[in-house]
Amino acid sequence: xxxxxxxxxxxxxxxxxxxxxxxxxxxxxxxxxxxxxxxxxxxxxxxxxxxxxxxxxxxxxxxxxxxxxxxxxxxxxxxxxxxxxxxxxxxxxxxxxxxxxxxxxxxxxxxxxxxxxxxxxxxxxxxxxxxxxxxxxxxxxxxxxxxxxxxxxxxxxxxxxxxxxxxxxxxxxxxxxxxxxxxxxxxxxxxxxxxxxxxxxxxxxxxxxxxxxxxxxxxxxxxxxxxxxxxxxxxxxxxxxxxxxxxxxxxxxxxxxxxxxxxxxxxxxxxxxxxxxxxxxxxxxxxxxxxxxxxxxxxxxxxxxxxxxxxxxxxxxxxxxxxxxxxxxxxxxxxxxxxxxxxxxxxxxxxxxxxxxxxxxxxxxxxxxxxxxxxxxxxxxxxxxxxxxxxxxxxxxxxxxxxxxxxxxxxxxxxxxxxxxxxx
Length: 424
What we know:
CATH superfamily: TolB, C-terminal domain
CATH topology: Neuraminidase
Order of helices and strands: EEEEEEEHEEEEEEEEEEEEEEEEEE
Structural class: mainly beta
Number of helices: 1
Shape: globular
Strand order of the largest sheet: 3-25-24-23
Number of strands: 25
CATH architecture: 6 Propeller
Largest sheet: 4 strands, antiparallel
Distance between the termini: 41 Å
């Protein structure tokens, strides 16, 4: 199962993530703001790509908007940046950002970028490739260790890899990566330029979740169902060594990749822990099949054997099934899609109504998608949209309780950072 939308060719670097084609901002109906539906009605009222498909249970799609949608104010706090893929706050509230092209920069608290950090390994930045997610080690304040995922060029193609390094600062917001070590490589390699994923999330136990894509093309994407392949998977590894955790579901099997935690995914570009420390993800699917999942150990999430939505051509994907025995249903799906990117659990004082909600960046919806779960924390209770007018690539919650959204402006290969606060 999965997520993506109706599309058009992009002439520059890839900015969509669901197909060789790219999302067209103008084709998505505006939602939220003054034109938002009344509370209790779904935010999404656009025509579905697969109108004959029915959800498996009530509330699996087009959840109601809350009765009193949150009003926000926005401010651009950094602009003229190179096209960014991810952002992480440093302990002093400066920002460490990763550019798609393969650079890292430290931004001052005023949003000014320092020089490119030295020592970043070579990345394959064509298509949807590039320098992807960045995460600080849990003990960063003592170790200065960071982790990052990237599209690694290899002799037999490329693939998503994870590296760790020591961030050594120098000068004014400059520095270098020392002791760079690639600790994990998604295998097999493939000579393509799509569906690399990837997000990095530390579990409460200090293990590292790594999300990846299934490389998009047919038939290679079928390996999302293959436990001997690392395509279309969530991995759980030891951040010190990159090795599998011993209680991973397939640890010790002779042929299965032991790092695999869950499988049957398409292109995972959103991941975060909830308030209980459980992993949640949102993955790009086909036209009308973005989906929210709570990956569990050893579970098969179905792609491409089952999926909501259809191919970009409008044809069914495979047998056209949305359910099959032994394959998990998504907690929630979007048709039309949102184009999911970064995701963060909201915990702060700015937005009390969003406490413990998931804030998801929308590439297609050009804003934030706010998902609140029911009291049991298992199903979506409400969905809210906050339009920002730009494709949102990453989302973080600051220590001040504000939400910081990293945009991308494809035609100019540039980015901004938008600060979202409660309206006064």
